[in-house]
């Protein structure tokens, strides 16, 4: 059978096609460590073995410590994190203020700046 065809009829019906999409979302990986049993690398490796070559991965909930290390994984096209949102909620609660759009914008901007500093600009992942 061809690499680009999903052989499971139920999966093909759910996707509305028997062709693999260009990107598959994997989540939530926020509780996965980079080492140890069932780590994030093992999950990516297992997916790379079974997915067709054209399918990229978007990882939901990636820890900051993993972002820079994942930039060299060819299948990982993009990542996201809600750490910035948690930081905004925590700050608002601690200071007994509302979680405003301005606070959220400040936290996501700071998070993106930190991620970019941790990775090489020429090999950055798309951050959502």
What descriptive keywords fit this protein?
single chain; 128 residues; alpha/beta; 4-stranded parallel sheet; 44% helix; 11% strand
Description of the structure:
With 128 residues, the protein is of the alpha/beta class. It has one domain (9-127). It contains five helices and four strands, in the order αβαβαβααβ. It has helices at residues 9-15, 40-50, 64-70, 83-95, 101-118; strands at 23-26, 56-59, 76-79, 126-127. It has a four-stranded parallel sheet, with no helix packed on it. Strand 2 (56-59), helix 3 (64-70) and strand 3 (76-79) form a beta-alpha-beta unit. Helix 4 packs across helix 5. The two termini are 35 Å apart.
Count of folded domains: 1
What's the helix count? Answer: 5
Order of helices and strands: HEHEHEHHE
- Report the end-to-end length measured between terminal Cα atoms: 35 Å
Chain-averaged pLDDT:
81
User: How large, in whole angstroms, is the Cα Rg?
Assistant: 18 Å
Assign an overall shape: elongated
- The strand count comes to 4
**What structural class is derived from the secondary structure elements?**
alpha/beta
Low-confidence stretches at least 5 residues in length (pLDDT < 50)?
none
Short synopsis of the structure:
This protein has 128 residues and is α/β, with parallel strands linked by helices.
Secondary structure layout plus pairing:
Blueprint: H1 9-15, E1 23-26, H2 40-50, E2 56-59, H3 64-70, E3 76-79, H4 83-95, H5 101-118, E4 126-127
Parallel strand pairs: 1-2, 2-3, 3-4
Helix pairs in contact: 4-5
